[in-house]
Amino acid sequence: MENLHLRQLLLIMLFVLILEDILLRGGNAVEAAIATAFCIGIQDPHSAGLGGGHLMTIYNATTKKCHVVDAREVAPLNSTENIFFNRKNASKYGYEAVAVPGELHGFWTEYKNFGGNLEWKTLVEPAIQLLEEGSPTSHVLARQLQLHKQQILSNKLLASIFTNPKSGHLFAAGEQINTRNKLADTLRILANSSNPLEIFYKGEIARSISKEFEKNNGRLTFEDFNNYKSIIRSDKDIIYTKLPNGRTICGPPPPSGSAVTQGIINILSKMEFNLTTISGSVDYFHSFIEASKFAYSIRDSLGDIDFVANSLNLSHLLTSQEWAENVRNKITLRTHPDNYYQEGNAHQALPEDHGTSHISVIDRWGNAVSITTTLNIAFGSFVLSESTGILFNDQMDDFSTKGMPNYWGYPPSPQNYIEPGKRPMSSMSPIIVFKENGKETLAIGASGGSTIISGVASTTFNILKIGMNIKEAIDFPRLHNQFRPNFTMFEERIPEKLKEGLKERGHYFDNLDWLNVVVGVHQAEDGIIYANSDWRKGWESQPAGY
Predict the structure, then answer these.
(1) How far is 519 from 356, CA to CA, in rounded Å?
(2) C-alpha to C-alpha distance for 105 and 190, rounded to whole angstroms
(3) In what order do the strands lie in the sheet containing 368-374?
(4) What is the pLDDT confidence band of residue 487, given thresholds at 50, 70 and 90?
(5) What is the rounded distance in angstroms from the CA atom of residue 149 to the CA atom of residue 19?
(6) CA nearest neighbour of 106 among 224, 232, 194, 205
(7) 401 is in an annotated binding site
(8) Catalytic center at which residues (predicted)?
């Protein structure tokens, strides 16, 4: 047991040193985030990697402007809206489930436009080092390996990289993984390239991968890779919310869930709460639930802004003062029937999205980055490239399919139907809050599927309005109501008296151990940078800095 804990401690120290090294060598927040994301793709291969995609929000402390890079995966060109009708598992597992990955394209776009302090290969080398020397299996990965044991062991390629050759069993927590040699080769090629996009999306890597997909009846083609582009969103497309006290939130437009997250904060921003009493706490949680219902009701009407005409307008509605004031006037002391909250498409719902990883960084110049990266469900599509060692996403499952109700039985959202080149909706909400005087910055985001929105909203509100420090805000008990279905999920730590008070106001709820994992960095007005990584993911999750 002592050896196990020592290996886990070394893992934490290694990640701390990697991030510190990038920052100490003069790298900025964008470069530190890219290097860390490369490493998370190695350490948490079940939730991130080159086979997935991400959304990044950047704050430039000099210009006091936000930038957003959308590196979300897109549907292959030969996709149609009904390809998964009555074939639900086909969108989750196997070659057809894979959307065109955007991870690397996004990294290079971010590096070329917002980085450049360090050499590109400097950002990739720490991940290569992890693969070459091996790194201890985290408790989170070990648990996911056991949860998906049957699928992994029945897949020859996956079994070859996740089975300990010494024991013949799946890697356990603390055991050293050094079996991903193909991926190490791929990263070396990308690290030493003057333009890795030419190799990955237009060259030999794209050709090798597309041949594998053709052989296995997948939909990805060389043309799909060749056509993929990450997007630097224009300022008019970025979602902003003006808050009291000179603060502004910025985040990505749909397919991100950022607008819904900001909508919840927008509603609550002019409400006052006293959390020192049970009745005051009941008021707070009741108002949060009600605000969530109004904001989430619009989420089902959103879709990729390049495909859904009214999606951007609805997103900006969520951040308007007029809409927030109207909703505040509708929040009473009791809950109401569903039609009371309906702001978007009645009785339609998006599919449930799944796990991710999040990184928040603030550098010595005050620049900030918030990036959420994902494969979708754990281990994505369970498709591992034999030639490159890349594990691919199952983002096709994040689309809605006509005639296929979601997990809760609600009809699908037409705004999220599959179209060639379209990005599926997501709850990912990498947001940044900054003060106009430049004296405060908060970079925050979360993992946890559809509960990301409520987790980021509540934690951000607790910092900005309730006055909690970032540790108190992240540690604080959470709840979640996404309107469809209209019941509230609570963390078990919430006191019984509080639950009883909410029951009296008409709320129905279910208990969970925990809902989501929030990561944030807060440069407070005292000039000190405070960071916290959610305890809910386990003790291996730690902030880093110098």
Answers:
(1) 12
(2) 11
(3) 231-233, 65-71, 53-60, 368-374, 357-362
(4) confident
(5) 32
(6) 232
(7) no
(8) 356 (nucleophile)
User: What is the residue extent of each domain of the chain?
Assistant: 2-60+77-229+354-416, 250-335+427-528
Helix boundaries (H) for 174-277: 181-191, 196-202, 204-215, 222-227, 258-268
Residues recognised as catalytic? 356
- Ramachandran region, residue 361 (left: φ > 0; alpha: ψ -120 to 50; beta: rest): beta
Do 359 and 33 meet the contact criterion of CB atoms below 8 Å apart?
yes
CATH class of the region 250-335+427-528: mainly alpha
The Cβ-side half-sphere exposure at 230, using a 13 Å CA radius, reads 26
Instruction: Evaluate if residue 152 carries a pLDDT over 70.
Output: yes
Q: Which residue is it, tokens 């900005």?
A: 464
Q: Give the strand pairing for 53-60 and 368-374.
A: antiparallel
Residue by residue, DSSP assigns 144-185 as HHHHTHHHHHTSHHHHHHHB-TTTSSBPPTTPEE---HHHHH
Residue type, 30: V
**Is residue 188 part of an annotated ligand binding site?**
no
Is 269 known to sit in a ligand binding site?
Answer: no
3-state secondary structure of 421: coil
Mean pLDDT for 494-507 is: 92
Q: What share of the chain is helix, strand, coil (3-state, %, to 5)?
A: 40, 15, 40
Q: State how far Cα 115 lies from the chain centre.
A: 22
Question: Could you tell me if 241 and 409 are in contact, meaning their C-beta atoms sit under 8 angstroms apart?
Answer: no
Compute the distance between CA of residue 178 and CA of residue 315 in angstroms, rounded to an integer. 45
Main-chain phi, psi angles of 65, to 5 degrees: -120, 150
Nearest-Å Rg of the Cα atoms of the chain is 22
pLDDT in tens, 503-522: 999 998 887 777 899 999 99
Residues 54/401, Cβ–Cβ less than 8 Å? no
User: Which tokens go with 285?
Assistant: 């949680």
Q: For residues 415 and 413, give the distance between their C-alpha atoms in angstroms, rounded to a whole number.
A: 5
C-beta separation of 394 from 93 below 8 A:
yes
Closest CA to 252 of 45, 500, 52, 452: 452
- Whether residue 292 is annotated as binding a ligand: the answer is no
Higher pLDDT, 119 or 483: 119
More confident residue, 47 or 20: 47
- Amino acid identity at 232: I
Query: Nearest CA to 384 among 102, 34, 45?
Result: 45
Q: What is the distance between the alpha carbons of residues 94 and 89, in angstroms, rounded to a whole number? A: 9
- Interatomic CA distance for residues 372 and 374, integer angstroms: 7
- Res. 1: pLDDT tops 50: no
Q: What pTM was estimated for this model as a whole?
A: 0.95
Check whether 334 is labelled as a binding-site residue.
Answer: no
Q: Supply the pLDDT for residue 350.
A: 66
